[in-house]
Amino acid sequence: MNISSKYSLEQVLLIIVIIMVIMVFFYVITPGLREVVRPYHCQFYQATGLLCPACGGTRALLHLFSGRFLLALKSNALAVLFFPVVLYGIITVFRLAFDRSFTPADIKIAPFLLWSILPLVIIFWLVRNLPSFSFLSPIH
Amino acid sequence: MTDTKPVAVASKNNTMGIISLVAGILGLLLFVCCSYISIVLGIVALVCGILALQQQQQFALAGIVLGALSIVLGIIFVILSPVLFSEIIRNIERQFIW
Question: Which of the residues B11, B12, B14, B15 would you substitute to probe the A interface, choosing the one with the greatest number of A C-beta atoms within 10 Å?
Answer without folding.
Answer: B15
